[in-house]
């Protein structure tokens, strides 16, 4: 046993990518056991590894953790990315949940029927530029510090920067009016651990395309 966390998921972003980002930013090496066929998922279910019969699942410190937020909370606490006290943690949670709200829309976009896609993209653009990015820009502006909470890197910064990359993939112009967010993205991207993760050949997953969707459909039978 290597002692590295082991990530169980299919070979795509989905709900595991934010976990990959957080581990990478914390400088934690991890292994992936990719679920490539329905039988792989069935085996995890049948041997009792999946409490709620679903992935992501991460083996870490002798536990088999499921539920994305629970996994992220554990990693953030273990690697000191969760603030110095209960108030900072509340802010980090609040910002992380905001990131998750917009991120969920973007994650689900590739699954959207073609006839509805344009409307969904329009809605995402509107919420990105009128609701979510202004909120985060204002947080940074309000205290003038380098990071969202306590002038120290936290899981909220990492989740937000991951989201900013997805927003850029959708439309690079969406970040144009948010200089503090662009600066945060550059700052976090240049941290040695994150810089390494952003290099080609890392365990970071590419954008979800039709091929990945078909792979996921076969594994998860949806």
UniProtKB/TrEMBL annotation:
One of its GO terms (cellular component) is extracellular exosome. Residues 3-83 form the GST N-terminal domain. Residues 85-208 form the GST C-terminal domain. GO terms for molecular function: glutathione transferase activity. GO terms for biological process: glutathione metabolic process; xenobiotic metabolic process. It catalyses: RX + glutathione = an S-substituted glutathione + a halide anion + H(+). InterPro entries: Glutathione-S-Trfase_C-like, Glutathione-S-Trfase_C_sf, Glutathione_S-Trfase, Glutathione_S-Trfase_N, GST_alpha, GST_C, GST_superfamily, Thioredoxin-like_sf. Keywords: Transferase. Its EC number is 2.5.1.18. Signal peptide: none annotated. The keyword Repeat does not apply. Pfam families: GST_C, GST_N. Belongs to the GST superfamily. Alpha family. This is Glutathione S-transferase. It comes from Muntiacus reevesi (Reeves' muntjac).
